[in-house]
Design goal:
CATH topology: Ferritin
Number of domains: 1
Oligomer: single chain
Distance between the termini: 59 Å
Structural class: mainly alpha
Number of helices: 10
């Protein structure tokens, strides 16, 4: 018997070397043989797997967000630190997509196809950013970073509905909101390569958040839950503070948010 879909994804997730992880994910996406109907991917019933040790390099050093130094974009080091921070988000996004695909069982084959595609695109984003970082004279791991994305993965490991609500539709949707501002800052310093990369990432991230929206709504329908009420409840349970404005409303609507949900987010913002 060959290696199963879940085992292949698990191997990619456990790989600590960024270059090997990127290559493994892109190779797996290129073949995708396990998505044939006779593989029975959506028949693998069972409870979500426990959190395993995610594969990542020894560097960057992970610290609390409040301990990250503030650097000016006008300096060479500050410029590189911004690119590094985006690369770190994309590296974590590879692991989050892989984890979403191998942790949760008993979902339709399309769910697993979606999250492998997301993982492959996140891998490409990281590859582009890492190359650009190297062109600036730095490498991934040269700056400190935080672990907030993976901490949320641990908090949502028990339920795919909670995971879909809080990682794609909260943390990754936050990227939709802040990217226009980063684009303006990078334009001002003349980093046209970074602007091109971020425009690609923004386009892809809209589809990634849309994947989360689709499967969140699917699971709500499957369980007979009202999606708006459920999303509101989960925000209040899991977030220490409401999402921060301003929101990139156009991008969020393209990514599966409804006008009612956007009104909800605005109402949750503290005056």
């Amino acid at each position: 018997m060959g290696v199963s879909y879940f085992e292949r994804l698990g191997q990619c997730l456990a790989e600590p070397d960024p270059a090997r992880k990127v290559a493994a994910v892109r190779e797996l996406y290129a073949v995708r043989r396990f998505l044939a109907e006779d593989e029975g991917v959506d028949e693998q019933e069972g409870r979500p797997l426990p959190i395993i040790r995610v594969g990542r390099p020894q560097r960057p050093l992970l610290v609390e967000p409040k301990h990250l130094p503030r650097r000016r974009l006008s300096s060479k080091k500050g410029h590189a630190a911004l690119i590094h921070s985006i690369a770190h988000i994309e590296f974590n996004a590879i692991n989050l997509a892989l984890d979403a695909g191998c942790r949760f069982r008993g979902l339709p084959s399309a769910y697993y196809a979606d999250w492998l595609k997301v993982a492959a695109e996140e891998a490409y984003h990281f590859h582009l950013l890492n190359e650009h970082l190297q062109s600036l004279g730095f490498a991934y791991g040269d700056f400190e970073a935080h672990d907030g994305l993976w901490q949320m993965a641990e908090e949502t490991a028990h339920d795919p509905l909670v995971r879909m609500a809080l990682i794609p539709r909260v943390l990754e949707a936050r990227g939709l909101d802040v990217t226009p501002g980063m684009l303006e800052r990078l334009e001002r310093i003349g980093d046209h390569r970074a602007v091109t990369i971020l425009q690609l990432i923004l386009r892809d991230e809209i589809t990634h958040v849309a994947v989360g929206s689709y499967w969140f709504n699917y699971l709500c329908r499957q369980r007979g839950l009202d999606a708006i009420a459920t999303f509101t409840r989960l925000l209040r349970i899991y977030l220490r503070a409401p999402p921060k404005p301003p929101f990139h409303t156009e991008a969020r609507l393209q990514a599966g948010f409804t006008a009612e949900e956007m009104a909800l987010l605005e109402a949750l913002v503290e005056p």
